[in-house]
Design a protein that fits this description.
The chain is of the alpha/beta class. The chain contains eight helices and 14 strands. It folds into two domains: about 1-145 and about 295-314, Rossmann fold (3-Layer(aba) Sandwich); about 150-290, 3-Layer(aba) Sandwich (Rossmann fold).
C-alpha cells in the first residue's frame, strides 16, 4: 500500500519535505515549481500520480503570497493529473491571525484561504498548531491539526532548573495550550494580560496573573513574529522577580527586528520547531530548533493507512 503514497514539495520548505519522505522511507516526488520572467508561477509534475495518495508539503511562510499561490497551483495540477486523494500539508497556516471580523469593513482572510485550498483541489488538510481553533471550522473538508506541545514539553521535562518552574501563557488566547504544557510539566500556570495596539505589531503588556516571583518561567506562544510581545513579556517577568525565562513556540516566523530583539533581551533560551525554515542568519546560540518532520511523517503514515491521528497524542 505504501507504494501508492507520494510526498511532494513546493519551494517554501523543501528540506522539511525531504525529512518527511526520509521518515516514511520513500523518495520525494519529482516536480518543477518555478516563476517565469513575468512572475507567473508554473508547475509540472514529473511522475505518474494517477490514483495515488498525494501529500503536498508547503508552509505559508515568507514570502507568504508566493508560497500560497504555489500551493494552489500545485493542488490544481495534482487534481488534473487524477490523483486519488490530495492532502495539503500546511505546517504553518498563514493569514491565521485574520480569523474574525474584529473591526468594521475587514476580511476574514483565514476563511478565504480555506476556500481557496478547497477549490484548488485539496481533499484534506494537515497542519500544526493553528492560531485559533475555529479555523478548522472554516473548511468543508477534513482537517487534522497536530500539536508540537508534546515535543516542546518533552524537551523542557529533560532540563534541570535553578528554581521551581511556572508556565506562563503570553496572552489569554493561548492559556489552554499553556495549561496543557503546565500539566505535562507538573507546574503551576500564570497568564500575561496584554492589549494589542491597533493593527501595528506592537503590544502593551499590562499585568501578570499568577505567582511568578523567585521562579523559572517558561512562556508559551503559537508563533513569534517580530518578537516585540516576547521581549515585553520577558522584561515584565524579570521585573516581577523571575530568576530565569525560557520561551517556546511552534512557528518561529522571526521577521524584521526579531533576532536582534531576542539576542539583546534577558531570555535564557527560545525553543521552536521547524514548521517554517529557520535560516542560518536566525540561528542564535539561545535558539533551539526541534525537528517537526517525525510528527508530520507519522501523521501522513496514519492518514494513508487509515489509522487514528488522535492516538499519537494519547
Amino acid at each position: 500500500m505504501m507504494d501508492e503514497l507520494k510526498v511532494f514539495s513546493g519551494n517554501a520548505h523543501k528540506s522539511l519535505a525531504e525529512q518527511i519522505a526520509k521518515y516514511l522511507g520513500i523518495p520525494l516526488g519529482r516536480c518543477e515549481v518555478f516563476q517565469f520572467s513575468n512572475e507567473n508561477t508554473f508547475v509540472r509534475i514529473l511522475e505518474n500520480v494517477r490514483q495515488r495518495d498525494v501529500f503536498v508539503v508547503q508552509p505559508l511562510s515568507s514570502p507568504v503570497n508566493n508560497n500560497l499561490v504555489e500551493l494552489l497551483i500545485m493542488l490544481d495540477a495534482f487534481k488534473r493529473a487524477s490523483a486519488e486523494r490530495i492532502t495539503a500539508v500546511v505546517p504553518y497556516y498563514g493569514y491565521a491571525r485574520t480569523d474574525k471580523k474584529d473591526q468594521p469593513r475587514v476580511p476574514i482572510t483565514a476563511r478565504l484561504v480555506a476556500d481557496l485550498l478547497t477549490v484548488a483541489g485539496a481533499n484534506r488538510v494537515l497542519t500544526v498548531d493553528l492560531h485559533a481553533a475555529q479555523i478548522q471550522g472554516f473548511f468543508n473538508i477534513p482537517v487534522d491539526e497536530l500539536t508540537a506541545l508534546y515535543l516542546l514539553g518533552d524537551y523542557f521535562a529533560q532540563k534541570t532548573y535553578k528554581t521551581e518552574i511556572v508556565v506562563v501563557a503570553t496572552d489569554i488566547g493561548i492559556s489552554k495550550r499553556a495549561r496543557d504544557l503546565a500539566t505535562r510539566l507538573n507546574a503551576p500556570l500564570a497568564i500575561m494580560e496584554k492589549r494589542r495596539m491597533g493593527n501595528k505589531d506592537q503590544t502593551e503588556t499590562l499585568n501578570v496573573i499568577g505567582d511568578v516571583e523567585g521562579k523559572t518561567a517558561i512562556t508559551v506562544d503559537d508563533e513569534i513574529d517580530t518578537a516585540g510581545s516576547l521581549v515585553g513579556v520577558v522584561n515584565t517577568l524579570v521585573a516581577r522577580g523571575v530568576t530565569e525565562v525560557y520561551s517556546c513556540c511552534t512557528h518561529p516566523i522571526l521577521s524584521g527586528p526579531a533576532i536582534q530583539r531576542i539576542a539583546s533581551c534577558p531570555l535564557k533560551e527560545l525553543v521552536v520547531t521547524d514548521t517554517v525554515p529557520v535560516k542560518d542568519s536566525k540561528k542564535l546560540d539561545k535558539i533551539t530548533v526541534l525537528p517537526i518532520a517525525p510528527l508530520l511523517g507519522e501523521a501522513i503514515h496514519r492518514i494513508h493507512t487509515g489509522l487514528s491521528i488522535g492516538a499519537m497524542f494519547e
